[in-house]
Design a protein that fits this description.
75 residues, alpha+beta, four-stranded mixed β-sheet, 4 strands, 43% strand, elongated, binds zinc ion
């Protein structure tokens, strides 16, 4: 959270890529975020981030190595 204009953002959505270990990549799309109107940086509230991490953990355990998830569907 380096941006000085935080939390002056608009509600939007972002994608979060997670690299797990050496060979796993999971991207969670449509994550609700505050998108900065100045620099375009996204800020995600911690309850949402926790939920995303939970989704990623579940997916990791399922053995998926490469994938895209929609936040809404997976939550
Ligand atoms: Zn900014």
């Amino acid at each position: 959270m380096k941006c000085p204009s935080y939390p002056a953002g608009e509600k939007g959505k972002t994608s979060l890529p997670y690299v797990l270990g050496r060979d796993k990549l999971i991207v969670v799309r449509d994550v609700p975020a505050l998108v900065c109107t100045q620099c375009g940086e996204s800020f995600i509230e911690s309850p949402i981030l926790k939920k995303v991490e939970k989704i990623v953990n579940t997916v990791e355990k399922s053995g998926m190595t490469l994938g895209f998830l929609e936040y809404r569907e997976a939550a």
